[in-house]
Write a structure and sequence with these properties.
This is LysR family transcriptional regulator. Residues 2-59 form the HTH lysR-type domain. Helix content is 40%, strand content 24%. With 299 residues, it is of the alpha/beta class. Strands 3, 4, 5, 6, 7, 10, 11 and 12 form an eight-stranded mixed sheet that branches. Helix 7 links the parallel strand 8 (194-198) and strand 9 (222-227). Helix 1 packs across helix 4 (60-87), helix 2 crosses helix 3 (30-44) and helix 5 (107-118) crosses helix 9 (283-295).
Length: 299
C-alpha cells in the first residue's frame, strides 16, 4: 500500500524532475530516493517516471497519479491541523454559564472577545443562569464552566474557582427620592429604608456583599421585595417601591425613573468568579481557562 512518503516522493520529484534536488528537499540521499521510487513503482505495477542519464520525465501513469497524490497530501495536512487545533482546544464544544450582570460590567465582553480570536471554530454554548443553579450544573458536568458570584456555601469539592473581578457597591434609588440629587451618598443614610434585594440568602453571592456592607454601615434594612435579576430590581426601584444596593455596573443600565449613586462609606466589594470541575481536562476548557487568564488581569 502506498504511504504518504510515496505520495510526497512523487509530487516532489514531479516538481524538480531532478533526483539530486528532489532528494535534498526530502532530506534523503539520492540512492535512497532511487530505491524508494523503485519500491513505489513495484507497488503500483508500472513506471511512474521515465529517466535517462540526461533527464527525468513523468510517465503517463505518474501524470495520472499526480493530482490524486497532491490531494492526499493536502488532506493529510488538513487532518494534522485539525488534530493540532483540537489538542489546543480550538475545536469541539464549550458550554459556559454566566450571570446577567457580567454583561453590564464588561467582564463577559472581554472574555468572549479574546476567546473568539483564539478559538473561533469552537462551538461555544452560552447559558444565562442564576449562580445558585450554576454550581450544581458545573459539578454535574452539564456546564464546562460558570461565571458566578462568590461566596457560595458548600461549594462542591470537585470544583475549582478563580476570582476574576471585584465590583464596588452602589445605591439605586427613585428619581423622586429626596437624596436623588446628591452625587455621592452614605449607606448609613438609608437606615430603616425599604429595600429591594436579590432572592439569595445573606451568605450567598451579591446578597452576602450587601449584608456585609449594611452591617459595616450599622443599618437595618426592611426588605420589601426580592428578585433574581438586577434588571427587575431596578425596575421595582423605578416604580418607587424602595431602594436597592446594586453592583456599580448597574449605573450603565438606563431605566427612566432611577439614579445610581456611589457609596462613600462602603469598601465592601462583590466578587465575580469562574468555576469549573477540577478533573475536566478537555482541550476546549483548558484553552478557555488560558484565554481568561490572558484577557483579564490577575486579581
Amino acid at each position: 500500500m502506498l504511504t504518504l512518503k510515496h505520495y510526497e516522493l512523487l509530487t516532489t520529484l514531479a516538481e524538480e524532475l531532478h533526483f539530486g534536488r528532489a532528494a535534498q528537499r526530502l532530506g534523503v540521499s539520492q540512492p535512497q530516493l532511487t530505491q524508494a521510487l523503485k519500491q513505489m513503482e513495484e507497488l503500483v505495477g508500472t513506471r511512474l517516471f521515465d529517466r535517462t542519464k540526461r533527464r527525468v520525465e513523468l510517465a503517463a501513469a505518474g501524470a495520472l497519479l499526480l493530482p490524486d497524490a497532491r490531494a492526499v497530501l493536502r488532506h493529510a495536512r488538513q487532518a494534522e491541523e485539525v488534530a493540532l487545533r483540537a489538542g489546543r482546544g480550538l475545536t469541539g464544544r464549550l458550554s459556559l454559564g454566566y450571570i446577567g450582570t457580567v454583561a453590564y460590567n464588561g467582564v463577559l465582553t472581554k472574555i468572549l472577545s479574546h476567546f473568539h480570536t483564539q478559538a473561533a471554530q469552537l462551538d461555544l454554548q452560552l447559558v444565562l443562569m442564576d449562580l445558585d443553579r450554576q454550581f450544581p450544573e458545573v459539578a454535574a458536568g452539564n456546564l464546562d464552566a460558570g461565571i458566578v458570584r462568590l461566596p457560595y456555601p458548600n461549594i462542591p469539592p470537585e470544583l475549582d474557582s478563580r476570582v476574576i473581578h471585584r465590583e464596588a457597591l452602589w445605591i439605586a434609588l427613585p428619581t423622586t427620592h429626596p437624596l436623588a440629587g446628591e452625587e455621592k451618598l452614605d449607606l448609613a443614610q438609608f437606615d430603616g429604608a425599604d429595600f429591594i434585594a436579590t432572592h439569595l440568602p445573606p451568605n450567598t453571592g451579591f446578597a452576602a456583599a450587601m449584608d456585609q456592607a449594611c452591617a459595616h454601615a450599622g443599618i437595618k434594612t426592611n426588605i420589601v421585595h426580592r428578585s433574581p435579576q438586577f434588571a427587575s430590581i431596578i425596575s421595582l426601584v423605578a416604580a418607587g417601591l424602595g431602594v436597592a444596593v446594586v453592583p456599580e455596573s448597574l449605573h450603565r443600565v438606563k431605566i427612566p425613573g432611577v439614579v445610581c449613586r456611589a457609596l462613600s462609606d462602603v469598601s465592601v466589594t462583590a466578587e465575580i468568579a469562574l468555576v469549573w470541575r477540577r478533573d475536566n481536562e478537555s482541550p476546549p476548557l483548558q484553552q478557555f481557562l488560558a484565554s481568561v487568564s490572558a484577557a483579564l488581569p490577575p486579581i
